[in-house]
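Deliverable D2.4 — example input (C-alpha cells):
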C-alpha cells in the first residue's frame, strides 16, 4: 500500500487539466434538453449521434429531452489517430432506419473545422428529412474552415485538443467525466 503522495498509483485523468467540469457539463446538457423539448413539441424527433465521440453526450441529452424520440447512430471519421482533422470524411457506419419526413437533430461532440458536419448535413439532406438541425457539445471557432449554424451549443472552447466525456485520444479517455486537456500548459 503506497504511503507517500508520490508513490500512489496514477488514476486515469490525473494527468489532464480540467477545462469543463462534470457538473458544468451536466447543467448545460439539461438546459439544452429543455430548449429542444420546447422547440420540438408535437414533432417526431430523431437524434442522430455521430460516433464515437458523441455517444455520452447523446445519452445524457436524450434523457434531458421530455419528448418521444428515436435514436440513430452514424459513424464518421476525419481524424484517424491524429490530433487534427485530415479534411477527408468517411462514413464508417450508416443509419439503420430512414429519416425521410422526420425532424433530425444531429448530435455532435465537437465542431472543429466544420468539414465533417458540413459533409454530414449535406448527406442527410439527400435522405429527405423534414428538417435537420445541429446540437454540438463543443465548438472551436478559431479552427473553423466552413461556417455552420449550430442550433444548440453547449460550450465554445479554445483551439486545444480535448478529451473526456466521449472525446478520445487514440481511443482512450472517453470515460473521463470532465473535458480536459493533456497538460496544464494546454488549458490556457
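Example output (designed residues):
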Amino acid at each position: 500500500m503506497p504511503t507517500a503522495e508520490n508513490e500512489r498509483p496514477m488514476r486515469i485523468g490525473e494527468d489532464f487539466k480540467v477545462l469543463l467540469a462534470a457538473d458544468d457539463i451536466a447543467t448545460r446538457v439539461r438546459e439544452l434538453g429543455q430548449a429542444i423539448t420546447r422547440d420540438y413539441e408535437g414533432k417526431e424527433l430523431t437524434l442522430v449521434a455521430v460516433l464515437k465521440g458523441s455517444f455520452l453526450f447523446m445519452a445524457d441529452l436524450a434523457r434531458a429531452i421530455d419528448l418521444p424520440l428515436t435514436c440513430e447512430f452514424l459513424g464518421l471519421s476525419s481524424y484517424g489517430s491524429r490530433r487534427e482533422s485530415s479534411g477527408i470524411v468517411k462514413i464508417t457506419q450508416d443509419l439503420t432506419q430512414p429519416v425521410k419526413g422526420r425532424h433530425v437533430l444531429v448530435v455532435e461532440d465537437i465542431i472543429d473545422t466544420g468539414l465533417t458536419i458540413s459533409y454530414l448535413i449535406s448527406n442527410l439532406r439527400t435522405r429527405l428529412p423534414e428538417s435537420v438541425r445541429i446540437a454540438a457539445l463543443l465548438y472551436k471557432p478559431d479552427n473553423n474552415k466552413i461556417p455552420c449554424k449550430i442550433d444548440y451549443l453547449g460550450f465554445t472552447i479554445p483551439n486545444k485538443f480535448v478529451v473526456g466525456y466521449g472525446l478520445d485520444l487514440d481511443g482512450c479517455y472517453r470515460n473521463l467525466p470532465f473535458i480536459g486537456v493533456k497538460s496544464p500548459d494546454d488549458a490556457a
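Residues 100 and 129 are 4 Å apart (CA to CA).
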